[in-house]
Write a structure and sequence with these properties.
With 1023 residues, the protein is of the alpha+beta class. Helix content is 23%, strand content 30%. It has 20 helices and 49 strands. Strands 9, 10, 11, 12, 13, 14, 15, 16, 17, 18, 19, 20 and 21 form a 13-stranded antiparallel β-sheet that branches. Strands 35, 37, 38, 40, 45, 46, 47 and 49 form an eight-stranded antiparallel β-sheet that branches. The chain is globular and about 105 Å long. The two termini are 60 Å apart.
Length: 1023
């Protein structure tokens, strides 16, 4: 029995007591008049208020939405068939019908921009949709969400919230059939009664979905005055008290299973802002204030980006949500008018006014037309709800800055906050010390919707600095499944990894249980003082891990004989400096491995993040393609490999000398001068000031520098005059600044993906490192005394040692290197310990076929920036796993083409709908643009069809062919006005398009998916 008929079961049962009437066929309903399409030429955007601007695309879609109301079926007459909201669901899912609010809004909106106000055709279709919606209601008052959820908490809760507003609109308009309004009111009262009583809402499962319960309560808060039922009000107030107690954890978060940042911010906080019952409003204000108190430790302000990093590690329901430029709190940011802290997260009044003025100035074709298609794909009635609310709040710039200054991680004094949740057993520690801010979480995974029970990652979560932002950020699960079921580099949490009998484990996944100590004795963490050296111990790698909140963040792993590695995901920006302590520099975005180094330093804006360790056998820095801050930051992972014991500490300091030489005495090269290596008060030591490890134009220049510097340090009482003279003498005896090595290239031009010889000659070579932005990795070789070399990353190294001390280094140019100049740097460390640097000019050129870019994804690739979706290089392919939305995309960094070819192999791993696709977007105006914003999208479906889609126009042409049953190559050729697409080895194009008004000029190249999990491989671009 379909859920549509559940509401009539009782009546049908009663009728069976009477004699049966002869069966008759259901009459075929008469077709409903169609709603006329909008003429954009009649619309003036200046007529829209600021709030109304966001529904301009809805206006463009309204006729299509209304005309999708079924008018040719007796069974489903009135069902909204558009598949534009709650996509893929059928008539037995009442949530599909939530856009009756959209129809009612445009029918009742008496606005100069609205040609559909009291439109007769719209009214007819709206009434049909309302009657169908009412027909889906169950006899007990609940609404179904599909055949598997006949009495749905979500469907009923959101129906109450949306339809309460709809009834207010219909009442104010007064033209709808009063009997229908009365029937709607009765339906909402029945839904309210069920919602306040049923175990589905108030039992264990309801307690796991706070946002759904909140939606229903918000709706009832708007409906109580309409019902005038004292008993219902009393029950409502009882249930609200229960919601406060059960749905909000003691830690402050709203429980959606457990921590679910996006649901708390974008659903529950948004819904609660529309609370309409003055008598109970203090309860809601109290709940939201407690939530924002929790949020300040999990939404971390970045003053460089003017946005917020998110403590994503502890999020149980949304993978990869690690940053947001803006986080408006509440519908129309209304919480900002009630709670000052909420003003910290939203755009300012000035910014909002300027955006709205620009929207109006640009006109329909620029501001609205490109949004119509993507809005149709996700026609969310909550947007209409927000506009119908009418109220909004945006702080001034001064108010926003003042609110940011109240956030404890950003501007407050040191603290130690311990938060515990009794229901889940999870615990959280947030601490601020003068040199860092840190967040940790502990506990068991909580089973939530869609099997997301294993999303959360525990232990160390983030390290933050108020001036630099988040510098270490552990991610939650980027893919479904335990770490032992996925490639080891797919795990991007901050924690300890090791191999057991069943595969790779991480302490962050294995649900650590913490114990707390102060001065070695157990302590209640809730009683820890703000600056106490709190130690947290938990299990890792078959042993014990401890994290101590000290002047530095101190971490120690004691694993016995078990080999393990510590993974630290660094969040870097392109302008950062990165260097080993005791070694050389590392390019941000490159891969490097080092032994016999004691740490790594990140430098940014005169401030440094220092990670120093002992016990590591080797350290590896490798780039992850996982997107951070929408591509504004890069994730560079540090793995410290060890056996037995590893200790490391982290601090962030103002430092004029990043990665200071902190040895006890001053060394020039390998020579100990015997002079104490004192600090000068700026974060620099004497050795830092001498700069003996840098490149000098001559030996004389270095000695002159040492003479001047030591004299100044002597005047400042950092050095004695005697020690200053000793350092000048040591500098004069050194070979710093002398040209003792000759370096040359085997070729001045090279094709990406090939090897190149770098020749070195000189009698004093101990070690040389060749680096460059186009290399697969830095290459370090030994000198003439050894015939072996160490290669990092994917680089290939061969060393030929000869009596004449000539060394040949073979480096590999990165497969994804783009054509253009690529200067190589050769840093030679001499046997005396001093260094010499040579720069060699190299140019990367296209190959004989004109290929300017290729990527076979044989190793982690930094050539791409993922805009959204779940992209990762794994198993030799570039995988996008998110099937929930259309338009998941990633682009090639720095590459544009106008004419040429783009080719890639596509393998569909999973498709959510029959129209799911994978393809390439070309001539994209700005990197990261959606396919509806700019360029052409050429995409392949598993049924073998290929579409060419033009932004702002839609599908230009479709070609058909054999279904795709495995990996298939899609090749797109661009020749001026002509676009051709080929599939596989077929010499004939599957589709050809000649665009009379083409998008011209060079543009970005992107890979795009639509509701599909796709493996891309062997990407090639020619021009």
């Amino acid at each position: 029995m379909s859920s549509k008929r559940i509401a009539t079961v009782a009546v049908t049962a009663a009728l069976t007591l009477a004699p049966a009437a002869p069966a008759t066929a259901s009459p075929q309903p008469a077709p409903l008049p169609e709603v006329a399409a909008l003429d954009p030429a009649t619309i003036d955007l200046a007529d829209f208020t600021g709030l109304e601007q966001q529904i301009a695309p809805y206006l463009g879609n309204l006729a299509r939405l209304a005309n999708s109301v079924n008018d040719d079926s007796a069974t489903d007459h009135g069902f909204i068939t558009c598949n534009c909201w709650r996509a893929g669901q059928g008539p037995n899912d009442a949530r599909v019908m939530e856009n009756v609010l959209t129809l009612a809004y445009f029918y009742t909106a008496d606005r100069p921009w609205n040609p559909y106000h009291r439109d007769a055709a719209l009214r007819g279709r709206m009434e049909a949709a309302l009657r169908f919606m009412l027909g889906t209601q169950n006899a007990d008052g609940s609404f179904p969400q599909g055949s598997g959820d006949l009495h749905s908490r979500a469907a009923t809760g959101f129906a109450l919230e949306l339809y309460a507003i709809m009834l207010e609109l219909l009442d104010a308009d007064g033209t709808l059939d009063p009997a229908l309004v009365t029937e709607l009111t009765a339906a909402m009262k029945a839904a309210s009664t069920w919602f306040l009583e049923d175990e589905e809402v108030w039992g264990p499962r309801g307690a796991q979905f706070a946002n759904q319960v909140a939606g229903g309560l918000v709706g009832i808060s708007r409906l109580l005055g309409r019902f005038g039922d004292a008993d219902l009000r009393a029950r409502f107030e009882q249930r609200l008290a229960e919601h406060e107690k059960v749905s909000q954890g003691e830690a402050g978060f709203f429980r959606d299973g457990t921590v679910a940042h996006r649901y708390s911010i974008e659903v529950e906080s948004e819904d609660l802002a529309g609370w309409a019952d003055p008598a109970t409003r203090p309860v809601i204000d109290r709940m939201q204030a407690r939530y924002l108190d929790w949020a300040q430790y999990n939404l971390l302000y970045d003053q460089g980006l003017d946005g917020y990093f998110i403590n994503t590690a502890v999020d149980s329901r949304h993978r990869g949500w690690n940053y947001a430029d803006e986080l408006p709190i509440g519908s129309n940011n209304l919480w900002g008018s009630v709670i000052p802290q909420a003003r910290a997260y939203s755009p300012t009044r000035e910014e909002t006014e300027e955006r709205r003025a620009a929207f109006a100035r640009a006109g329909w074709q620029t501001s609205v037309a490109p949004l119509i298609a993507p809005t149709w794909a996700y026609l969310d009635p909550a947007v209409v709800r927000d506009v119908a609310l009418g109220e909004e709040y945006y702080p001034t710039g001064a108010e926003r800055r003042a609110a940011i200054r109240t956030l404890r991680p950003y501007a407050g004094a040191p603290y130690t906050e311990h938060r515990a949740d009794a229901v889940t057993g999870q615990q959280f520690v947030f601490a601020k010390r003068p040199s860092y801010v840190v967040g940790l979480g502990f506990g068991k995974h909580v089973n939530t919707q869609y099997g997301f029970w294993d999303n959360q990652r525990f232990g160390l979560g983030y390290l933050y600095d108020p001036k630099l932002g988040v510098v270490v950020q552990g991610q939650n699960a980027p893919q479904i499944g335990a770490p032992r079921t996925r490639p080891v580099d797919a795990e991007l949490s901050w924690g300890t990894g090791w191999t057991a009998a069943d595969g790779v484990h991480f302490d962050s996944y294995d649900q650590p249980v913490p114990a707390f100590f102060r001065d070695g004795a157990p302590v209640d963490p809730a009683a820890a003082g703000d600056l106490d050296d709190l130690e947290i111990r938990y299990a890792a790698a078959g042993g014990t891990k401890s994290v101590t909140l000290d002047d530095r963040l101190r971490v120690r792993v004691e694993a016995g004989s078990t080999p393990f590695f510590e993974r630290i995901p660094l969040v870097l920006e392109k302008g950062d400096t990165l260097r080993w302590i005791g070694g050389g520099p590392v390019a941000v975005g490159s891969r490097a491995e080092a032994r016999d180094v004691s740490g790594v330093v990140v430098g940014r804006d005169g401030r440094s993040v220092e990670i120093r360790w002992s016990g590591a056998g080797s350290a590896v820095l490798w780039p992850s393609s996982f997107p951070v801050a929408g591509g504004k930051r890069a994730l560079q992972v540090l793995d410290l490999k060890a056996t037995g014991t590893l200790a490391y500490d982290i601090r962030v300091v103002d430092d004029a000398c990043v990665g200071s030489d902190e040895r006890a005495r001053v060394f020039i090269g390998d020579r100990d001068t015997g002079v104490a290596n004192a600090g000068d008060g700026t974060g620099c030591t004497v050795a830092d000031r001498l700069r003996a490890g840098e490149q000098w134009e001559s030996h004389r220049a270095f000695v002159a520098h040492v003479t001047r510097t030591t004299a100044a340090l002597a005047r400042a009482d950092v050095l004695s005059r005697r020690d200053a003279a000793r350092l000048v003498a040591a500098a004069a005896r050194s070979d710093v600044g002398r040209n003792l090595v000759t370096a040359s290239l085997g070729a001045a031009e090279v094709v990406a993906g090939t090897q190149l010889q770098v020749r070195l000659s000189g009698r004093s070579i101990r070690e040389a490192t060749v680096s460059g932005p186009c290399l697969a990795g830095d290459v370090t070789t030994s000198g003439a005394t050894q015939a072996t070399a160490q290669a990092t990353a994917q680089a290939t190294t061969e060393v030929t040692a000869q009596p004449t001390a000539e060394v040949t280094v073979r480096v590999t140019v990165r497969e994804t290197a783009l054509p253009g100049p690529c200067p190589l740097t050769v840093r030679t460390v001499r046997t005396t310990g001093t260094a010499e640097i040579d720069t060699l000019p190299l140019t990367v050129v296209p190959d004989a076929q004109g290929v300017v870019f290729r990527d076979s994804f044989s190793s982690p690739s930094q050539a791409w920036t993922a805009v959204d979706g779940a992209w990762s290089v794994t198993g030799g392919v570039y995988r996008q796993q998110d099937t929930t939305r259309t338009g998941r995309r990633t682009y090639i960094n720095g590459l544009t083409i106008a004419d040429g070819t783009v080719e890639t192999r596509i393998d569909f791993r999973a498709t959510a709908t029959s129209t799911a696709f994978g393809g390439v977007q070309v001539r994209t105006a700005a990197p990261g643009d959606a396919y509806t914003q700019s360029g052409y999208l050429v995409y392949l479906r598993s049924n073998g069809s290929v579409d060419v889609y033009r932004a702002g126009t839609g599908v230009l042409a479709t070609g058909t062919g054999p279904a795709v049953t495995g990996p298939a190559t899609l090749r797109v050729e661009l020749r001026g006005v002509e676009i051709r697409a080929f599939v596989g080895d077929d010499p004939a194009p599957r589709v050809t398009v000649t665009d009379p008004n083409p998008i011209t000029g060079p543009g970005s190249v992107q890979l795009v998916t639509g509701r599909a999990a796709v493996d891309f491989d062997d990407v090639r671009v020619t021009r």
